[in-house]
Amino acid sequence: MSSSATPHVAVIGLGSMGYGMATSLKRAGFVVTGCDVSADAVARFVADGGKGAKTPAEAAKDADIVVSVVVNAAQTEAILFGKDGVAETLAKDTVFISSATMDPDIARRLAKQLEPTGRHYLDAPISGGAQRAAQGELTILASGSAAAFAKARPALDAMAAKLYELGDAAGQGAAFKMINQLLAGVHIAAASEAIAFAAKQGLDIRKVYEVITASAGNSWMFENRMPHVLDGDYAPRSAVEIFVKDLGIIQDMARSARFPVPVSAAALQMFLMTAAAGMGRDDDASVARMYAQVTGTKLPGAK
Fold first, then answer.
1. What is the CATH number of the domain that holds 244?
2. Do 138 and 20 sit in the same domain of this protein?
């Protein structure tokens, strides 16, 4: 652990969210070391005034706090306990902040594995997108021990506009995030269906966007994602595959709980179809393109 007065933070995963979180921490006065599978992402962070590391273990060596911003539970587990993982070098009493969206049972298992070694695990999935990450204005849905919160709080304050403390053990934060993801996936699928159906009716979809965003049928996802369709721009801010994963987790959780989730099941099928059509790595608003392809509907940017 760092001996200086300035806390050291390691950020593992410098994608669109992690990069913004790392820069927010740096702006708040932390010494920040970034690590990513992409050497280019690390080089960019170093050029921006951060420090770089080649492995999670190296990044965590002097850290008071480790923030893991990767895609899923498997990557989180590898960063913790895999070869060159942070558990090899993390000092006692440091905190591991896990920001990946995952099944609550896995969050509980990872915490149970780490905490007996004298380190803290904070289950802290995030919401808000790349822009809010860069502004230090994320929503963080966190749960963990009082000690984990105490150690993590300075970093959480630098990254979040809203911090929800949702329980004293890992898993609660993950469960809250999955409810958010259920709604987010359903709303993107519904928005995509609506905009493509409007185009099929021959309506001016820019005018449709204007009307719906001022009407009761609006949703945050309609307002946020449908401009991508209007502009024919499917560069990934959040990819289709994210919702294939997250709505898949919802199905697994619901099956275990014997709880029916037919609306999110239908949304999952739309994301799966979109991925199967070759758009899995494109922006999640590509569900509208899938509808357009199936129905012969013309959307902006279509060849």
1. 1.10.1040.10
2. yes
CA contacts within 13 A on the Cβ side of 240: 27
Across the range 247-272, mean pLDDT stands at: 98
How many structural domains compose the chain?
2
Answer yes or no: are the C-beta atoms of 214 and 296 closer than 8 Å: no
123-143 per-position pLDDT tens digit: 999 998 888 999 999 999 999
Q: Do 141 and 197 have their domain in common?
A: no
Picking from 143, 169, 195, the residue at the C-terminal end of a domain is 169
Q: Residue 197 belongs to what domain range?
A: 175-295
How, if at all, do strands 126-127 and 138-142 pair?
antiparallel
| Verdict on whether the full-model pTM lies above 0.90 | yes
- Catalytic annotation, residues: 177
Instruction: Tell me which of 150, 169, 188 is where a domain ends.
Output: 169
- CATH no. for residue 140? 3.40.50.720
- Within this chain, do residues 121 and 64 fall inside the same structural domain, yes or no? yes
What is d(CA 31, CA 256) in angstroms, rounded to the nearest whole number? 43
- What contacts 59, CB < 8 A, 6 or more positions away? 10, 11, 12, 33, 34, 35, 53, 66, 86
